[in-house]
Amino acid sequence: MKPQQVREWVRAARRIVVLSGAGMSAESGVPTFRDAQTGLWAKFRPEELATEEAFRARPQMVWDWYAARRESLAKVEPNAGHHAIAAFQQRHPGRLTVVTQNVDGLHQRAGSPGVLALHGSILEDRWLEAPRPCCAGAEPLPGRPPRCGVCGNLRRPAVVWFGEMLPARELAAAEDAAAACDLMLVVGTSGVVYPAAGLARATQGRVVIVNPQASELDDAADAVLRGTAAALLPELLED
Ligand code: APR
Asked: Which of 64, 69, 162, 187 fits a 20 to 30 Å CA distance from 51?
């Protein structure tokens, strides 16, 4: 399949969903999960590090790891792919919905409105246990992680860990968008993590994969474009 054909599909589509994963941000310099060869990802599988159990067992290690990722994100910028999506949304209000598994905030920084961030945000944190009046009443004590000075409740990254529920409002809105779209661009995801990957299987619309490598969703696709997000999206989304 040629990008020009997909561009025709984009032009004809009334409602488009972009379902993005870590590869969307690769050209911004953010390492993907399953390719990362450095840091803790090299030593632990994501499923071992990104869990509530891992945080409870080693809160400082997991907190520090997220803090380091947060710091490195402050040094990167949205790439041409993020910008092409946001520019399309500005030219065509209400026509394209971004559903992302990324926690890096780069779609939002590029100017995409209404991003449905299924896996939360690494730029924010929240209480580990449901906050008690003491937690809400005062600033958390600084620390790694910060904690409530009264009850000891810990702050944790506001991301969705393995085994946790996705935010209900975002997931419901993503399911509605997937059901209503006539075209879904699946960009930079290995397609192994559900329920996000299930959105590409549930849609009645055409499914186009943008990924330089094979993914688990290729069999659900009407077209597979072997290229990168920053190279292909500006071409696909140009008017
Ligand atoms: N453009 C497009 N795709 C790319 C690019 C690029 N420049 N570079 C890499 N890719 C592709 C890879 O080929 C791979 O298929 O991006 C995909 C990244 O896959 P993963 O690292 O598995 O990331 P993702 O699919 O987002 O992971 C899903 O798993 O660890 C959890 O919660 C975490 O949201 C994450 C989820």
From this structure: 187
CA–centroid distance, 119 to ligand 1, in Å, is 13
pTM: 0.95
For ligand 1, the distance from its centroid to the CA atom of residue 214, given in whole angstroms, is: 11
Residue 221's domain comprises 1-29+78-119+165-239
pLDDT digits (tens, 9 = 90+) for 31-65: 887 765 655 667 777 777 899 999 999 999 999 98
Active site residue 119: yes
The model's pLDDT over 116-149, given as tens digits with 9 standing for 90+, comes to: 999 999 999 999 999 999 998 889 999 999 999 9
Q: Residues lining ligand 1, CB < 6 A?
A: 21-23, 26-27, 32-35, 46, 101, 119, 187-190, 193, 210-213, 215, 228-229
Asked if residue 197 lies in contact with residue 217, where contact means CB atoms within 8 angstroms, the answer is yes
Give Cβ neighbours of residue 220 (< 8 Å, ≥ 6 apart).
200, 201, 207
Cα 211 to the center of its chain, rounded Å: 15
Single out the residue in 159, 184, 212 at which a domain terminates. 159
Q: State whether 47 and 18 are in the same domain.
A: no
